[in-house]
Amino acid sequence: MDPWRFFTLDSGLAGRWMAPPTPAGCRFQQQRLQQNREQGPGPGSSWPLEGLHLTLDPPGDPTPSWQPRLLRQVPVPAGAGGRPRGLHCSPDGLLFLTAGTAPCLHMLDLEGRSVCHLPCRVPGIGDFVPEDVAVTAAGLVVVSDLVHGAVHTLQHTARALQGRWVTVGTFPAPRGLAVDALGRFLVTNYVPGAVHSFTLGPTLEALAPASVLGLDGPCWVGLGPNGGFAVSEEFGDVQLFGNAYQPLGSLGGLTGHTFGSPAGVCTDAEGSIIVADEKRRQVTLFPSTGAPVCLVSKGLGQPLGVACVPQSRLVVADAGDSYIKVYQYSERT
Predict the structure, then answer these.
(1) How far is the C-alpha of 223 from the C-alpha of 211, rounded, in Å?
(2) Most buried residue, 131, 158, 263, 277, by most Cβ within 10 Å?
C-alpha cells in the first residue's frame, strides 16, 4: 500500500484514505474548486470558520488603516548572487534567508548583522541552491531544493559538528516550506499541485506522510489560524486548511479580495493572516475579524517571503531591490 495519505479540496472526501488521483480526477477537483470560488458568499456575509470571521473586502484596494513603521532595511548578504526569496524567523529573532544563486543558507540577526552562512552541499548530489527554509522549535533546519527535487535537513553528528545536509524527501517540484503547530513539515509541490506533510524520526526517516491534492500551482505555505496552514497559489488565491487537512475555503472566496500573484504567507500572534502579493506589490493583512487591510505597499518592488516576528514586527523579503525590510505594524490609526 502506498504509505502516503491523500486529501483533496473536496470537503466530503477530506480525511479519507485515497489513491493518488488520475489526471482527469485532478481536473475534476480543480473544476469543483473553481465552482466553489465563483459561488462565494453573499454581500455583507461573514464566514465563521474555526475561529475565522473574515469580512468581505470593500470595493477597491484594502484601506490602509494601519500605518506600519519601517524600522530598517537590510541588504542581501554579499556573495548571495541574486535576490532574496524565502525566509524564516526564529522566536529569538534569528533570520534564516535563501537568496540568489549561491549554494548557501544565510543567517542574520534583525539588526542586519551576519551571524553565519551554511554551505549547501549533499554527498552524491553536490552543491544545491536552497529555495525556501523552515526551522523547527528544536532548531532543526530544513530547506527545499527545486533543482534536484529534494528536501534536505542539516544533521549534526560527532563527526560533523558543523552539520551536514541529508536528503529526507524527494518530490517533483518542491518550493515552499513550513513547520505546523504539531511539528509536521509542510512542503508545496508545484507541478502536481500538492502540499505534502511528514514528520522525521530519530534517524531522520520520514514518518506519517500525507498529501493535500488539487491545488493550482502552490508556491508558498505558512501557518494558519488554529493550528492549520495556508497555501498561496501562483496567479490565483490563498487556500486555507485546518489542522486535520480539512479545507476551509480561500481568502479570496471568503473576503472578496483579489490577488495578483500571492507569494509568502504567515500568521501573527493575533491570528491574522499576512500575505505578500508579488504582482500587486503589497502586503495584505487578513484579521480574524474585520475586512482585509493593506499593510504595506509603499516602497515594495517584488515582495516574496514574509515572516512574523515577536513584538508585532514583520519581515519582508523584497526581490525588487534585494532588501530585507523590517516593519512595526501593531498600531492602528
Answers:
(1) 16
(2) 263
Q: What is the pLDDT of residues 239-290, one digit of tens each?
A: 999 989 999 999 999 999 999 999 999 999 889 999 999 999 999 999 988 8
At position 297, the amino acid (one-letter code) is: S
Burial 292-312 (b: 16+ CB within 10 A, else e): bbbbbbeebebbbbbbbbeee
Task: For residues 111-123, give the mean pLDDT.
Answer: 91
What number of other Cβ atoms are within 10 A of residue 186's Cβ?
A: 22
DSSP string, 160-225: -TT-EEEEEEE-SSEEEEEE-TTS-EEEEETTTTEEEEEEE-TTS-EEEEEEE---SSEEEEEE-G
Q: Which residues pair with 192 in a beta bridge?
A: none
Q: How confident is the model at residue 311 (pLDDT cuts 50, 70, 90)?
A: confident
Q: How confident is the model at residue 128 (pLDDT cuts 50, 70, 90)?
A: very high
Q: What are the C-alpha distances in Å from 164 to residues 97, 122, 161, 268, 326?
A: 18, 7, 8, 32, 31
Whether the pLDDT of residue 298 is over 50: the answer is yes
| Per-residue model confidence as pLDDT tens digits over 46-55 | 434 444 545 5
- CB 299, CB 325: distance < 8 Å: yes
Sign of the alpha-carbon dihedral angle for 277, 230, 176, 110: positive
Q: Which three cell numbers stand for residue 67?
A: 500605518
What is the spatial distance between Cα 333 and Cα 50, in angstroms, rounded to a whole number? 29
